[in-house]
Amino acid sequence: MKHTQARLGNEIHARLATILRERTGDPRLELLAITEVKVAPDASFARVFYRTLGDRDESAAALEKAKPYLRRRLAGELRTRRVPELDFRPDDSIDRAQHLDSVLRDLERERGRKEGEGSA
Asked: What is the pTM of this model?
């Protein structure tokens, strides 16, 4: 990722976090946290990853409804010629990591059990 893409992603991340925290009145967005923003090379598109402690479907619906508002607010705060289209996606990385950790622990237990049977 180019430096400018990373910088724009960080700027969008910070601005969106502030807008969501201070300027939206939707309670479905109160338990939402932006985790990462990936910007396309031409800056026409930004994928915004988020986590929520609330209902995932309700948060997704609230973000979809708020998307035009959020983009307008970003347009007023970013110093770019064009504001990227926003694509909100739930961040599943923690869930995937927990699943992988669980699988590895199961394999380790299985290995220990087989080694115990082999020495008996």
From this structure: 0.76
